[in-house]
Amino acid sequence: MATEEVKVQKVPWLFVVIFAAVLGFGGTWWQLTTAAGITGRPAQTGSIGVPTVCMSGMTTLPYMVLLIMGAMGKFQPFRGMLTPATLTYIYIVSLVCSFGVGWLSPCSSWGVYYGARIIDPIATEEYIPLFMAPAPEIAQQIVPGGMPVPWADLFPSMMFWWIYTVLNAVMMLSLVMVFRRSWVDIEKVPFPHVVAAYELLSRAVPKEAVQKRASLFSPFVIGMILGVAFQFPILMSDLFPWFPDIYGWRTNTCTSGQQWITADSPLAGIVGVSTFQKDPLGMAIAYLAPLSILFNIWFWYFICIIILPQIAYTMGYYTGITSLNGCGRIWCGEMLAFGEPFKWIAVSTGATLGLTVLIVVLNWKYLVQTFNAALGRLSLEDRTKLEEKEPVPYRITYAMLAVSFILLLAMYLATGISIASAIVVQLTFAVFWFAIVRQVGMAGFFFRGTDKGITLARLFLWPTAPETLNRDFVLTAQFTNFLVDAPENGFQVGGNFIASFEAFRMADMTSTSGRNTFMAMLATFIILPLFSLIGWYYTVFTVGLSKIPGNWGSRGCDPLLSRSALASNWNRMPGTDPWVPHFLLGFVITAVLSVLHSRFIWFPFEPVGFSLAVSYAGTSFGIWSSALVGWILKTITLKVGGSKLYEDWGVPVVTGFIAGYMGLLIPGTIIAHIKFWFPF
Fold first, then answer.
1. Rounded to the nearest 5 degrees, what angle is found at the Cα of 117, between the Cα atoms of 112 and 120?
2. What was the pLDDT predicted at 231?
3. CA 350 vs CA 226, 279, 610: distances in Å
4. CA 61 to CA 28: how far, in whole Å?
5. Which pLDDT score is estimated for 41?
6. H/E element, 109
């Protein structure tokens, strides 16, 4: 029966096109005109992009939309429309859009080049061609606002970024389709975010209302109540200064939900203790991840970040570190991130890149098989069986990959980047985001941070920053810094990679046609960036960038030079010289753990948890504490009631918590939007 249903499925094209266009334009306008709260960013106040636990990559919009669909399904006119397949398409479009309309998306991609025109128009004239950003006199108009949009002057840059975005999306989608069968059909990579979304989706289907009738004492409703109870005081204190700060969110708390250790804390004497994550959303995500991953995150954190640095401190390293507050222990001077003796960011970068290399090496037979199918070297029977569940034949997948890669190289060359730099930039995107998606798929968290992106460029092009800056170096530095930082920073790369894998995972869980899933994603990848660009241009010219919160990178900061190309930053990322031995150490550790973990079932250590523990995710964002709490709660659940208790109570309570957490952001974003236009 399932096979027959898949055959008759049709993509609701009219809905997909309109929904993607509306979310692209309207979502960008809405997010830009959302008032910031005490954090200085529209996160707890109602982000429709990425919530507080930003190193998870879990976006809010898909969950908001599924909650709204569930409410609509209670009414008769919508009951026949909301099928699992239809809800899957809704999830896909909203997931892709959520990475494109977040508070940083435009400001860390095309907005950077506009901002550079404003901050330093003379210097950027040398580095930025006119088809990447308009002339300074045009760009200046976005600051005060109240100006008509000069569409003719914006057209070249709009076309450049739209085409660039679409080509990157096609390339990332192609890579995902090469590994789709391996990850989704064979390995069953869990993707904790999708597990939570599927629980909401399944409850939004009207025909399942009887099977999943929600009573006040059902696990899912209990979880929702807990989610609302946690989120409500934070949301209120974020929006209203007079509301009591019940959870201490205004005290020593980073915008990503972690508490930092102060120099006068009783824990200050432990040099590796910098932050711990106190947002339960991180713990809920962790609970849905495999126990082995959670164990490795907190285990390697205690070994590598707590014990080893403490030993080094007694030997004379990290002088003065105990007088610094939490985040300073990671970033200031040459401390835990870049300093001797460990240079953990260099180690974690090697470990992260090692994930990609080892996955490819350990799956070489699988890759050869797909490549042979693409070249027609398999018999018709074998090829048909191999491609039975694939969205398109492998020959089309590899053709898409090759053509998009070549066209992207041509675009880089047009900007003034050399062919060697262009290849390095695009390979950087591929190898880092492949590893990051693996981290998200297994743990629900990823290695966030700009300090890893220039690794290949430093290895193969510029070991140290050139004394005289040029366009090749500056643009290479900008692309590799920020487009491998986070999925919502330059959503045309990372967000599309994550969204593609999670979409195929959801399609597998709902028995939705893989081909239709591919078509819906491809359409969204084409439509979204164009309308998002239009929405961004319209908003910044009419409202004014000076009035818009959360526009970092477009105003008041110069990431093009100060955060990317200046020698003071370039020469310390991912570690100060000599950093290559530390990079290779991380790579070797990943290789050893990968081989042993794949060979011996009993071997308790694996590479994903290690790569996260020693990265910013563990050291700065504090996911070690989320992993530890999640590991304890999940272990207790399985010990007490086994998988039945976990599936009947554990997952519904946790996903209910996530639903309550995300659901409260719906009125939150409405109130924050009203507050932007009518401050109170």
1. 105
2. 86
3. 39, 29, 11
4. 12
5. 59
6. none
Q: How many CA atoms are closer than 13 Å to the CA of 68, on its beta-carbon side?
A: 12
| CA dist list (Å): 342 to 24, 272, 284, 586 | 44, 12, 31, 11
H/E segment holding residue 598 = helix 580-599
Q: What is the pLDDT of residue 107?
A: 64
Structure tokens at 130: 């006119």
Read off the amino acid at residue 282. Answer: G
- The enclosing H or E element of 490 equals none
The token pair at 392 is 């398109």
Distance (Å, rounded) from C-alpha 661 to C-alpha 658?
A: 5
The confidence score (pLDDT) of residue 2 equals 44
- Quickly list DSSP for 405-420: HHHHHHHHHHHT--HH
Contacts of 270 (CB under 8 A, 6+ apart): 306, 310
**Can you give the pLDDT at residue 1?**
38
User: Cβ(108)–Cβ(490) under 8 Å?
Assistant: yes
Q: What is the spatial distance between Cα 531 and Cα 398, in angstroms, rounded to a whole number?
A: 28
- Dihedral sign, Cα of residue 211, residue 212, residue 216, residue 217: positive
C-alpha distances out from residue 502 to 57, 454, 540, Å:
11, 27, 32
The tokens of 413 are what? 């060359």
Q: What DSSP line would sit under 327-396, residue for residue?
A: HHHHHSTTSTTT-TTT-HHHHHHHHHHHHHHHHHHHTHHHHHHHHHHHHT-S-HHHHHHHTTT-SS-HHH
Cα–Cα distance, 470 to 386 (Å, whole number): 48
Question: What is the phi/psi pair of residue 31, to 5°?
Answer: -65, -40
Alpha-carbon separation of residue 202 from 188, 194, 210, 413 (angstroms): 19, 12, 12, 47
CA atoms of 211 and 135, how far apart (whole Å): 60
Residue that is written with structure tokens 């106040």 in the block: 45
List per-block mean pLDDT (blocks of 10 residues) for the chain, which spans 680 residues.
51 91 91 75 66 81 91 75 88 90 67 81 84 89 88 94 94 95 93 94 70 68 93 85 86 81 86 88 95 96 94 90 81 77 93 94 92 91 89 95 97 96 96 94 90 92 92 92 78 84 95 93 94 90 83 58 82 89 96 90 93 88 93 96 93 94 89 87
pTM: 0.92
DSSP per residue over 254-287, as a string? -TTSEEEPPTTSTTTTSTT--EEE--HHHHHHHH
* pLDDT value for 102: 66
Asked if 326 and 263 touch (Cβ cutoff 8 Å), the reply is no
Give, as one character, the DSSP assignment of residue 675: H
User: What φ, ψ does residue 258 adopt, rounded to 5°?
Assistant: -105, 145
Cα R_g (the chain), whole angstroms: 24
CB 78, CB 281: distance < 8 Å: no
The C-alpha atoms of residue 465 and residue 135 are separated, in whole angstroms, by 27
Distance CA 358, CA 611 (A): 13
User: Which residues 6+ apart lie within 8 Å of 397 measured at CB?
Assistant: 174, 177, 178, 370, 374, 390
- Look up tokens 């470990």; give the residue: 351
- Please say whether the dihedral angle defined by the alpha carbons of residues 534, 536, 540 and 543, taken in this order, is positive or negative: positive
Which CA distances in Å does 562 have to 289, 295, 342, 439, 568?
A: 38, 38, 26, 29, 9
Which of 60, 25, 24 shows the shortest CA–CA distance to 42? 60
Going by C-alpha positions, the residue among 68, 69, 142, 60 that lies closest to residue 102 is 60
